[in-house]
Design a protein that fits this description.
Number of domains: 1
Order of helices and strands: HHHHHEEHHHHHHHHHH
Structural class: mainly alpha
Radius of gyration: 20 Å
Strand order of the largest sheet: 1-2
CATH superfamily: Farnesyl Diphosphate Synthase
Number of strands: 2
Helix content: over 70%
CATH architecture: Orthogonal Bundle
Oligomer: single chain
Length: 326
C-alpha cells in the first residue's frame, strides 16, 4: 500500500486548515499575560490536527464550509485541549508529543485552571455564536469522555475488564470525540438529523480503529515501531490484545498474568513476559482483525455519501488511522 500523506489528505481543505490556526488562537485570547503565554505555548505544540480535519472534511462532504464550521472546529479543539491538559494532571504526565506538559512547566494548580479556562472559552464561543446544536453534540462527548475515563480507572483497580467493557471504555474515551467532529461538521453544513447521526456513527467507528491501533503500538506491532513499550501494562491498562489473550487461557494462567500486571508492572523482565504471553496467545492478530473490521465498517458507511474530493480524503484518513506508524 502506498504511503498515505497528511498533506495530500488536507488538499480539499488546505485553505480552511490554514485559516483555522488564526481562529483557534483568537478563541483562546485572554487579557491575563500568564494565560496568553500558556495558550501561545499550546498552539505552538499542536500535533497533526486530525480533529479539525475531520470537522472540515465532514462539512465539505456536503458543500462548502462556513463560519459555523470554523466554530465547530474551534469548539472541538478547545474542549479536546482542555481534556488533555486535565489528563496530564491526572496521569502525572510531564511530556506530551515530545513537549513538556502544562503541569510540568507551570505546576498542577495552574494546569487545572488553564483546562477550566479552555472549557469555558469553548462554551462561550458556542453561546456567543448561537451554535446550541454544536454545543449539545460536543457537551455530550465531554460527558462520555469523563465517564469512560472513570470507568477505566475503576476497572484498573480490579483488572477484570472483559471485551464488551473495553469497547464501552474506548467508545466513550476516544471514539466519541471523533464522532463529534464528524457530526458537528455535517451539522454546520445544515444536514438533517439523520445525516448528522450517520456521520456521528462513521466518526465513532473510525475512533474505535484509532484506539485499537494505539493499543497495538504497546506491543511493537507494525513496521518501523521498534521494540514493544509495554506502557499500558506498566499503567495497568487492560487493552484488547491482553483481554483476548487472557480469555483464551485457563484460570491459573489468567491469575498468574493478572498478578504480574498488578504487582510486577515496573519490572522490565516481567512486563516482557506479559508481552510475550499476549503475542503467543494470538492477542495481536485478534486485535488487528477487529481493527480492520471496524475500518471496513467505516468505509462502508462512507459509501453512502456524495462521491467528491472530501469523501476521498475521509477515506484516506480512515486508512491513515490504521496504517500510521505512531
Amino acid at each position: 500500500m502506498s504511503k498515505i500523506n497528511i498533506k495530500q489528505i488536507q488538499e480539499p481543505i488546505k485553505e480552511e486548515m490554514r485559516s483555522f490556526e488564526k481562529h483557534f488562537r483568537e478563541s483562546m485570547k485572554s487579557s491575563v499575560p500568564l494565560l496568553d503565554k500558556i495558550t501561545h505555548y499550546i498552539v505552538k505544540r499542536k500535533g497533526k490536527q486530525m480533529r479539525p480535519m475531520f470537522v472540515f472534511l465532514s462539512a465539505k462532504l456536503f458543500g462548502e464550509t462556513n463560519d459555523s464550521t470554523y466554530t465547530a472546529a474551534s469548539l472541538i479543539e478547545l474542549l479536546h485541549t482542555a481534556t488533555l491538559v486535565h489528563d496530564d494532571v491526572v496521569d502525572e504526565a510531564y511530556k506530551r508529543r515530545g513537549f513538556f506538559s502544562i503541569n510540568a512547566l507551570w505546576k498542577n494548580k495552574i494546569a487545572v485552571l488553564v483546562g477550566d479556562y479552555l472549557l469555558s472559552r469553548g462554551l462561550l464561543l458556542s453561546v456567543d455564536n448561537g451554535e446550541f446544536d454544536l454545543l449539545r453534540i460536543v457537551s455530550q462527548s465531554v460527558k462520555l469522555m469523563s465517564e469512560g475515563e472513570l470507568l477505566q480507572i475503576e476497572k484498573a483497580r480490579k483488572l477484570d475488564i472483559k471485551e464488551d467493557v473495553y469497547f464501552d471504555i474506548i467508545t466513550k474515551k476516544t471514539a466519541t470525540l471523533i464522532a463529534s467532529c464528524c457530526a458537528t461538521g455535517a451539522k454546520s453544513a445544515n444536514q438533517s438529523d439523520e445525516v448528522v447521526e450517520k456521520m456521528r456513527l462513521f466518526g465513532e467507528t473510525v475512533g474505535i480503529c484509532f484506539q485499537i491501533k494505539d493499543d497495538l503500538f504497546d506491543y511493537g506491532s507494525g513496521e518501523d515501531i521498534g521494540k514493544p513499550t509495554g506502557i499500558d501494562i506498566k499503567e495497568k491498562k487492560m487493552t484488547l490484545p491482553l483481554i483476548h489473550a487472557l480469555a483464551t487461557n485457563n484460570k491459573s494462567k489468567q491469575k498468574q498474568i493478572i498478578n504480574t500486571v498488578r504487582n510486577n508492572n515496573n519490572d522490565r523482565k516481567k512486563v516482557q513476559e506479559v508481552i510475550d504471553f499476549v503475542i503467543d496467545s494470538g492477542g495481536i492478530e485478534y486485535a488487528t482483525k477487529k481493527m480492520y473490521d471496524y475500518r471496513d465498517k467505516a468505509l462502508t458507511l462512507l459509501e453512502e455519501f456524495p462521491d467528491n474530493p472530501a469523501r476521498q480524503s475521509l477515506k484516506e484518513l480512515v486508512l491513515y488511522t490504521t496504517e500510521r506508524k505512531k
